[in-house]
Amino acid sequence: MDMEQRLYQAAIKLIEKRYPTGWGGAAAMGTENGMILTSVAPEAINASTELCIETGCICEAHKLNQIVTHSICIVRENAISPFQILTPCGVCQERLFYWGPQVKAAVYTPDGQLRYQSLKEIQPYHWYQAYR
After folding, report:
1. Taking the CA atoms of the chain, what radius of gyration do you get in angstroms?
2. Please, what is the Cα angle at 43 between 40 and 49, to 5 degrees?
3. Would you put residue 22 in left (φ > 0), alpha (ψ -120 to 50) or beta?
4. What is the pLDDT of residues 86-106, one digit of tens each?
5. Is 43 exposed, middle or buried (0-12, 13-18, 19+ CB in 10 A)?
6. Contact 70, 103 (CB under 8 A)
7. Containing H/E element for 106?
8. What does the alpha-carbon distance between residue 8 and residue 11 come to, in Å, rounded to a whole number?
9. Cα dihedral sign for 116, 127, 54, 108?
10. What EC number(s) does this enzyme carry (predicted)?
11. Which of 10, 19, 39, 47 could tie 28 with a disulfide, CB 3.0–4.6 Å?
12. φ and ψ at residue 94, rounded to 5 degrees
């Protein structure tokens, strides 16, 4: 199984374990040495302090000094809803750009197909180009 499929399966497994009923969301990131990091969004009583689902993986990669190569974020509305892939938000794209424009992120597709694109493809006019 390739990294892209492994990440998909890791995120689904975490959702099913952490959120057996109701809403669920999880992220998984692959590193250059083949490690898989997973995370969920921490719950907060004040919505303004919430963090994205991917944040835990990003922090863990920094802590372990790992280079992220792939990222995926998956959610479902309830236990019987289909899983949906979410393209990283702008903030998470900025966080992922730390490892370069070649990082691949799973993106939303209307047909639900698993598809990854590089950050450069997702944001072809990203500001980092002004400093290269």
Report:
1. 14
2. 110
3. left
4. 999 999 999 999 999 999 999
5. exposed
6. yes
7. strand 104-106
8. 5
9. negative
10. 3.5.4.5
11. 10
12. -60, -45
Identity at 90, one-letter amino acid code: G
Report the residue count for the chain.
132
* pLDDT at residue 132 in the model: 75
Q: Are the CB atoms for 93 and 122 separated by under 8 Å? A: yes
Q: How many Å apart are CA 36 and CA 3, to the nearest integer?
A: 9
Distance from the first to the final alpha carbon of the chain: 35
**Is the pLDDT at 1 greater than 80, yes or no?**
no
C-alpha 54/C-alpha 33 separation (Å) is: 19
Distance CA(10)–CA(19), nearest Å, equals: 14
